[in-house]
Automatic annotation (TrEMBL), chain A:
Protein name, as recorded: Imelysin-like domain-containing protein
Major localization listed first in the record, in broad terms: other
CDD domains to which the protein is assigned, alphabetical: Imelysin-like_IPPA
Originating organism: Roseibium aquae
Key words, A-Z: Signal
Record-annotated Imelysin-like domain positions: 43-320
Subcellular location per the Swiss-Prot or TrEMBL entry: Cell envelope
Signal sequence segment: 1-21
Mitochondrion among keywords: no
Entry annotated with the keyword Signal: yes
GO CC terms, sorted: cell envelope
TrEMBL record, chain B:
One Pfam family cited in the UniProt record for this chain: DUF1513
Species, as recorded: Roseibium aquae
Protein name according to UniProt: DUF1513 domain-containing protein
InterPro entries assigned to the protein according to its UniProt record, in alphabetical order: TAT_signal (IPR006311), UCP028101 (IPR008311), WD40/YVTN_repeat-like_dom_sf (IPR015943)
Source organism superkingdom: Bacteria
Amino acid sequence: MRLLTALSLFLPLAVPLPGIAQDIDYSTRIENAIEGYIRPAVDGFAEEALDFPQAVASVCDHPSANSRAAFDAEFDRIIDRFAEISFLRFGPLVEDNRLNRLAFLPDPRGVAQRQIRKLRSDSDLLSLTREDLQQKSVALQGITAMELIAYDTSANVTLGTDTPEGRADCAYAMAIAENIAEIGEELSDAWHDPKGYSADLLDPGPDHPTFRTSAEVMETVFNALPVAIVILKDQHVLPVTGGGPEKAKPAALPFSRSGHGITYLASSIAAIDDMIHAMDLVPLLSGPDKRLPGGISFETRNGLSVLDRIETPVRTRFEETGGYQDLSVFVFTLNSMQNILAGQLAPALSLAGGFNALDGD
Amino acid sequence: MPLTATERLRISRRAFLAALGGASLLANPASSTQAFAEHLAWMDRADAPLFASARKQPDGSFAIAVFDDSGRELARVPLPDRGHGLALSPDRQVMVAFARRPGTFALAIRPFTNASPRLISSIQGRHFYGHGCFSGGGRFLYTVENDYENARGVLGVYDMTDESPRRLGELDTFGTGPHDILALPDGKTLVVANGGIQTHPDRPREKLNLGTMRPSIVFLDAATGDLRAKHELTADLHQLSLRHMALDGAGRVWVGGQHQDKTASPPLVGFVSPDRELTLCPLPDRFTGLLDNYIGSVTANRTGDVIATSAPRGNRILFWNAETGNFIPDQTVPDGCGIAPIDRDGFLVSDGLGGLTYLDAPDSQPLVLSRPPGVAWDNHLFAL
């Protein structure tokens, strides 16, 4: 799987090849994706998010080592479930800015932290409600904001401090948790709405405003996978390792403040593998290409194995435990996954190309 | 869909976005007007460089987006179809967005007045090629067009004095398939890259003369249209379609091309001046076969000493020393194509996956600043 030319390393935005993909009926694969992966994943996130306000209430009302540990465990589950849906960058997750409201990523310049600082100084957080929060910047509304107010930089839960500032942060945290829970419910409802986005994906047609054919739907759904790899690698991991071992920046890893960045990476690649297999692409493949979905699983297992070696929290353990080497190896895994997805599987499914790669522009 | 601005940016360009709000009436009045109005309330002080680019929206529609140096979207102008390049007046008071070829619309926006944007339609027998430029004084707009019945490139000339652009006539580009155009700093000379490929809107995006194509770079008298210089490639490179250009600090014109023979490994980037033929810059061998012979855009940094060229099919941004023509280490940006200068030495790169990547120098670690979900940035990015 690693013998591909570098040409095929990144072909991230697939579009149907004229006259080929248009003749293929992808509708069963799309239905598989919706029923076998997307709906269970958004339901899982929604269910987990419903527990989030209670976790905030527990640690704020009864701060203790146990309640902090319980909050941390719940936060880890939220990250895990969020990773399972965050790459579905189409439809309900994009509508109403839900993805950015759930997690403001990337944020290399610390926009969210600056905004939180300003919010704390300008607002009466004790009276802040979910509805109030929803009128504010997306950077203040979701998981990334929660991490900034609930953890210190060494992954310790700080929520529940019995000070005026601590009580204000608890009110803010509750508004965030309720907002996340509401977005989770919205996502689940939207994906289960028989006349909603699912219907758009399942009933393309010449008069449909977005999708004329199942190939165009497949383009949208499948593209989410190689794009997810690009984001994981270029946006999340390389800012940590790209400068070399002397300039490694473990704090640049999303959710590293809480110590759950590796959870996010692991769940993300596992989710890609799960989606591939839920789609059951093998019937559309022939010959050796039938092994490509299995290749994704192989690389996923490799990646999970590497990530499992990285000690957390990475911000404090990265240097002394060889985290740089392991995360660098993980980049190779991502390259291999991308090789398969964009370099082999996309062409095998008659999908290839890129938005900016069309002739003559 | 609301704008994705993340905090209330304060800039002095109230009228700028007011005008863009008017532009939104072109295709989607309700959502965009509301969004612009929302932002107008807090724009009162300038403190951020702005950028603009055409893009595909998550719902499949097309727009021009305006955003700041951290990727925060400030405004969006719906377009009726896919856009491509922008022409900016020298004083940055007018912005003209062009349809992607073979489109027939352009949109003139006067951002610092409350004038409504004006639609420019290509005349009968012509279509736009996605690019244009203003004259040195800003009065005239030159649009790159196809006289497709005669397989002849032309420049439409528009008087931009009044709110409604007025077509004055056209100039010959002395070639076929013109694509990019620049106005030289002398205020008297236009440079046009004639891609050399004949197309016809009845057979959209089909190349009709690959065996005989003759790309060229021409220098024209901006006032008379007289040909001052024409540089063509040698016969062995006649299929290197010369497409995009940028000026370096010394006034030389840097050119990026797209070779039509996928089996060849020609140089794709070079520089030229009126009195000196095109010098092509060799690519390191390691790029052989990697770029699919395709350069998507060309941009100089602020100081003009580094040229950035994008190769979206190879997912690479290639950098060149403008003085020596030597290659500088490349960067990987998947489907990266649009490039604009930022700060003194840096570049901002937009890509087809929605990413806006900051490079403070050619050899620095790319930093993804923003990636609005479902968005695909088009080929070109402009600093306003």
